[in-house]
Amino acid sequence: MTTSRLHDVTTLAAVKALDGRIYALLTEQELELLWLFAAQGRKVGVRVTVGGEPILSVRTQNEHDRLRSKNSVVAVTAESTPS
């Protein structure tokens, strides 16, 4: 998935649909989308956290496992779109 897809309405709707979902239950495709927006979502006013912490702070397999075992909830916040 490329950065240009960040502006796609369908992609934005898909990432917003992840809000409130349990991290451990996301599919590989959903995780890919989540990570894309975690890394580059600021460009379109989207912020992603998991279990109350920025997903980008999760760097090791142990940290991923911790989020999965705690049934951490995904939060997707759409801020005002930067101009």
Explain briefly what this protein structure is.
This protein has 83 residues and is of the alpha+beta class. The protein has three helices and three strands; from the N terminus they run H-H-E-E-H-E.
Give your account of this protein's structure:
The protein contains 3 helices and 3 strands. With 83 residues, the chain is α+β, with helices and mostly antiparallel strands. Strands 2-1-3 form a 3-stranded antiparallel β-sheet, with helices on one face. It is globular and about 30 Å long.
Keywords:
3 helices, single chain, alpha+beta, 83 residues
Proportion of residues in β-strands: 5-15%
**Overall strand count:** 3
* Unreliable stretches: none
Give the number of domains.
1
Global geometry: globular
Determine the N-to-C terminus distance: 23 Å
Oligomer: single chain
Q: Give average pLDDT, whole number.
A: 83
Helix content: 25-40%
